[in-house]
Amino acid sequence: MHKILYIIPGWEDACHDKPYQLLANAAKKKGYKVICENVDWKKPLSSQIFPVEEAAVVFGFSLGAMLAWLIAQKYPCHHLILASMTPHYSFTDPKIKKALIDLAGKEFIDDIINTLRPKHQAEKQTILYGELEKEPGDMLVHHTEHELNGSYIQEIAKIL
Question: pLDDT tens, 96-110?
Answer without folding.
Answer: 999 999 999 999 999
